[in-house]
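Deliverable D5.2: sample structural annotation.
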Amino acid sequence: MAYWNLYFIAKFVLFYGDHIDFHIWPNLVFALVLIPELKHKGWRMSRHILAYPVAFVLLYHDTRFPSLRQILAHQSDLSGFSVGYVWELAQRLIEPKAVLALIIAAMLFWFAKRWLRITSFVMLIMLLGVPLWSYRQALLPAPVVVAAAQPQAGKAAAPWQATPVSSTVADSNTLDSMLAGFYRSEASRQVTFGKPAEGVPPFDIIFLQICSLAWDDLDFIGDRQPALFNKLDLVFRNFGSAASYSGPAAIRLLRASCGQRPHASLYSAAPSQCFVMRELEQAGFQTQFLMNHDGHFGGFIADVQQRGMMSQPPLPIGDTPVYLKAFDETPIHDDYAVLEKWWKGRLNSPVQRVGLYYNTISLHDGNHYPGASPGASMKTYKPRLEKLLADVEHFLNLLASSGRHVAVVFVPEHGAGLRGDRIQIAGLREIPTPRISLVPVGVKLIGSPRNHASPMLIDKPSSYLALSKMLANFIARDPFASGSPAIADYLDDLPLTEFEAENGDVQIFRYSGRYYLHNKGEEWAEYLQ
């Protein structure tokens, strides 16, 4: 195989370092094709030419990157990335230890090929070393997180620590059956909003949908309990966003009045009663749409207007200051300035009740400060998060100073994926893992007569349907009245939703405390964090 030995040696190094998988049979067939010495120059040249694309495809197959079909499905979005952001992502693929190991392996190859038959060693490793190593790894105890002990005072337990873990791994048939049952159950669930009772003082409802914030991102930057969360009335600690991209997450929130649907159904018609903003309109709210970005990337505006049934255009923000430049070099406006401008207009409006949907991408991967070179968005994530949370807190104070009653729902779309894992580099979100799709959701009742020393924590598995039911309960029984029930009484009937997240052909499902990954056309496999 001559220098093709170095190709296989490099893959062995990456495999033993747990950077890639190694599929024995296709690699073995490829090696056997390369081994024979061909005397005819034309045949040698033809094999040489054909081997390069085969080697690339085989290497990609051994990696844990998304399938080429999934990448092609997002081709139009990828083409919108700036050159600086593409370079930043490329740098994350390079791990110094892996590069050093490859360099050492190459040096050993050049030294040893003069005296040893390298091909024999390569075949021996492929036929014995790789299977034995795989068998050894299979015998090791799985790194499954067990149920957490009681968290320290003032410190919340991670969402994936809330459910006791089964001692056995489920098979594909069981998971297919459970997922089908999950969808059947979700298809039958629905929340209907009534109208406020006569004489009940009006209040507003504001959705703050935050791009790129998950519990794991907070853990990663060392700030799991931000000060803002302590000032909320409710915090959902086991909330599944069911998505890892902005468009699907926005659609799911705007269709919150029905149970969770498969990803593909988001792009087809849904019953009118599923749309939470339409439900609010029928309850007497005027709905409004606001963003701190232009909304054109990935067809976000179309997702909100056409698939979320918010036909009105986003409110103008052109005279507010630009805070960041996005991964596609479009402007991102200052969150507080945008929200303050909207609130001033709201106070001058005669409309009694308003339901606002606000979307911000200030935390999105690839963002950079104006005038600064792109490429350091991972380093700027923490200060950008701190500013966003401070802006939200400042906005809550502004609402409180007005004397009006407002229910504010803080609900991230998905996480930033800051940590990455063995199957996905930091910042990529093609696979909606629990580190990306378990998000911190909070509720603040501005003007409530109750003063809470700390938020009420909801640890049961939940998703958007619970938010819709909670708001329906608020409309039915005014939570701002002095004689209204305790906040816990509004939550007794909240629907539970087990964690299931998907993106195109990829699904993650939580069953008996374990997470399972399913790629279209493949068997289920346990997802190990």
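Annotation notes: The two ends are 37 Å apart (CA to CA). The chain has 18 helices and 13 strands.
The annotation will be released with the project's public dataset once the embargo ends.
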